[in-house]
């Protein structure tokens, strides 16, 4: 058991206001006959010793165990299914009928139930755009003719070769398998761009922004065994940074979503501030992702770029890697933060 911090609060058991410890326990759950160990956060009253799940975290321990099981067996996570379906403008009913499964079954998968092996394969096949195109072309009675025509037109357009910046990025960097180098999530540009917009509201030095993204992704991985953005982080002299970050920020600038402002210091140093032009779309994030991002923003609010850089240099993942190397997310379990 590890104590995270101590606060004051009202204990629901002894009904007294007392010191409450936030503690993390390693617990093991049986998932499909396999023991899965996860960290579970509790609030423990120092007055009576009663322990309850930390209400601020708002997650079910079994959900964490299922998530870890999916990670170990490379299964789709619920939000990956939901995000893909919504990105292709399909309702649950439409997608379920295309797959040939019940809408209740798909709804359970999107809400955290474990998919069986055959449905996992079916989902992965259908979540390939060319396969989806064929499914819709051959479908009967699922869509109205006008809707079917519109969906097919959109899919066919997306299948055409495009030279957009996003396509170039995904072709070059988005095809990596889900590993401990990207937090077991393929690069998600929508979440990456909106995370940058989230942290850049009001303006933030680029060097500090790089660390905020690092801590958000690694902290989410520490708690949920999945990164937020799918970014890889490289060991550079000024601390961990998103690999190829300059390209991502330049893309946001070209889209008119951020602006770059030079900031001059008495020492002669010129810093580059990134400032949000358009508000982030927070709907692309899950509740856990939003909570982690808000926590990171608040906890490092008083840090300047040099202070957060110095703080990041103490991370074991940074200390155990060399210049230019990618920092594995497995080091997230040993974050100082």
Automatic annotation (TrEMBL):
Pfam families: MqsA_antitoxin (PF15731), SocA_Panacea (PF13274). PROSITE patterns: HTH_CROC1. One of its GO terms (molecular function) is DNA binding. It comes from the Bacteria. Gene3D superfamilies: lambda repressor-like DNA-binding domains. Residues 81-126 form the HTH cro/C1-type domain. This is HTH cro/C1-type domain-containing protein. It comes from Dehalococcoides mccartyi. The lineage of its organism: Bacteria, Bacillati, Chloroflexota, Dehalococcoidia, Dehalococcoidales.
